[in-house]
Structures are given as structure tokens and as C-alpha cells.
Amino acid sequence: MKKIYLVDDQPIANFITKKLLEIEGFSENVFDFTDPVMAFQKISEEQDAIIFLDLNMPKMNGWQFLEELQQRNIKHTIIILSSSTSEIDKTRASTFKNVVKYMEKPMNRDKFSELSTYLKTG
């Protein structure tokens, strides 16, 4: 099974996503980070992971995270999970080949069901 990384500076957002993953049977290989720099260091050592990524974070925002992945040719599956409802952000996210889905917070079971294709491929 692929490793799943939750990268969001808000612990409650990671908690909700992690609980939904557990409910859907993904309790193993799930790692959460509130520090995007630490997350990037760990994730850059991995191959073929799934990353739930927030955009608005201190130290390293989601855009910087995506750009760094792209520059290093690291090809994880990225699901943007952001509070931003901006069409500009959605369009910008679609320019990154690794981004397979843009979802607005808060995560819930209905939204989570849209992700089964990406999660079950590992």
C-alpha cells in the first residue's frame, strides 16, 4: 500500500482527514505533518506516495512545496485540500502534473468518497 502523507499546519485538519482515512480502512502508512518543511524532507525520500496538501502554510506554502517537488522531479500523487475557494488557485493547481484533485476544506465522508480511485491504486 502507498504511504499517505497529510501536510497541513492545522492539526485539526490533519486529525479529520486521518480519521476519515481510518474509517475507510486506511489506518496503516498514514503520516501527518504540521510543519511543511519537515514533511518535504521526509516525502522527498519516498517514492510513489499520496499527499494531502494544504496551500496556506507558514515556512513553506503549498505552492512552494509543489514547485520544489516539480524541480526535483518527485512524482507523488497530490490532492490539494485547502480552504481557498479561489478559481485562480484551482487553475494554478491544475498546472502541476502531480495534482490529481483540488478539494475544499473541511473534508467529509462525501468528499472523501471521490478519492477512492486514487487511494485504491496503491
From TrEMBL:
> Per its UniProt entry, which superkingdom is the organism in?
Bacteria
Every Response regulatory domain range:
3-120
Record keywords, A-Z: Phosphoprotein
Keyword DNA repair included in the entry's annotation: no
Q: Which InterPro entries match?
A: CheY-like_superfamily (IPR011006), Sig_transdc_resp-reg_receiver (IPR001789), TCS_response_regulator (IPR052893)
Q: Report the transmembrane regions from the record.
A: none
Q: Which SMART domains match?
A: REC
| Modification sites for 4-aspartylphosphate | D54
Q: Which SUPFAM superfamilies match?
A: CheY-like (SSF52172)
- ATP-binding found in the keyword field: no
Q: What protein name is recorded for this chain?
A: Response regulator
Organism for this UniProt entry:
Christiangramia antarctica
